[in-house]
Specification:
Length: 246
Amino acid sequence: MPKKRLISGTAPTSMVVGGSTMLSRRTYSRLTMPPMKVSDRRDERPPDPDSEAPRALSPRFDEALMLASELHARQLRKGTGIPYVSHVLGVASIALEHGADEETAIAALLHDAIEDQGGAATERLIEDRFGARVAAIVRACSDTDEIPKPPWRARKVTYIAHMASADRASLLVSASDKLHNARTILADLRADGPSVWDRFSGGRDGTLWYYRALVTAFRAHPDHLLRLVDELDRSVTAIEDVARGE
């Protein structure tokens, strides 16, 4: 059955996210509460929306999630059939697990939007919708907004040097991004072998250099997050061990 389009100005009763329909609280309560015996209500009745705890993240995070999904809707992870949005979700998850506030988590969702999905125009969109701080973090985590992109090695050298003066929120998003990438590279190397290196512009040697240089740069920054950088270091070391055994 085709999905009905919402008319501007009307209040939605449901929202589709990732193929699932999320009902509003009022609609959910009205539609899902079956007839019950009084003795059963304590265990089976859905929670009263008015008594729920405060939201951990505001609707701004939901808006950023929808924007990230829209921006990356036609993008896949390198050399795979995996939707790219899986990466931004992973980065936001890691950032939140390491203490990100909401604006930093929003930037994590959008960290590749400037670089991959529209450059300066997308940066302006992010600033208009989420503010200057979110846009600045996303900008700091982008190695270019040029199309076509400059040569790979030059971009990465500039990015690494830029991390020396990045603020703590930008460091958190960048390190979360690199950790998610490193975990994926490691898992794919173990599953698919050396052919994984063909996915990357830097190839085997360039990719190994880049991730080790990032670990060094993150550790040198006085505001680095020790636990996060330690985890990245372990993942990069594991990648290097697999590469040596090829």
